[in-house]
Amino acid sequence: MQKTFLAKKEDVEKERKWYLIDAEGKVLGKLAVVIANILRGKNKSIFTPHVDTGDYVVVVNAKKISVTGDKLKKKMYYSYSGYHGGLKERTLEEMLERRPEEVIHQAVKGMLPKNRLAREMIKKLKIFAGPEHSHAAQQPVPLEFKV
Q: Does 144 fall in a domain?
C-alpha cells in the first residue's frame, strides 16, 4: 500500500521557479487561467491543495492583451470608496488605458481560491505594463503556451 504524498512548506520554498510571460496578443481569460495554475502549483507533481506549491510569475506587455467580442465597451470594473455616491465604474477600455496591470490582477485573483492561501499566492504575481521588468536578477524562464 502506497502512502499519499503531502508537500510541506519547507520543502517547497527551496524549489520555486520564476516564469516570464509575454501577454502581447493573448486573450485575457485564457492567460489568467495559465497564470493561476502556475501560482497554485497545479503544473507540478507535488501539488497539494492546502500548501502553496506555486511558482513566481512575471507578466510583461500587460497593456497589449486582447479580448474577444465587445468586452472593451461592455465589461465594467467597479470600485467603492465606502461613502454614499462613492461607487465608480469603468469600462475595460478605460482600465487598460489607466491601469493595465490591474486588469490582469483582477482576472487572476478571481480564479484563485477565496482564502488566506490565495492572498499568499497572489503576492507571487508581478505584472508590468511594458516590455521591461525589474526581476532580471531572478532569471525568469520564458513560458510559451498556445492561447
A: no
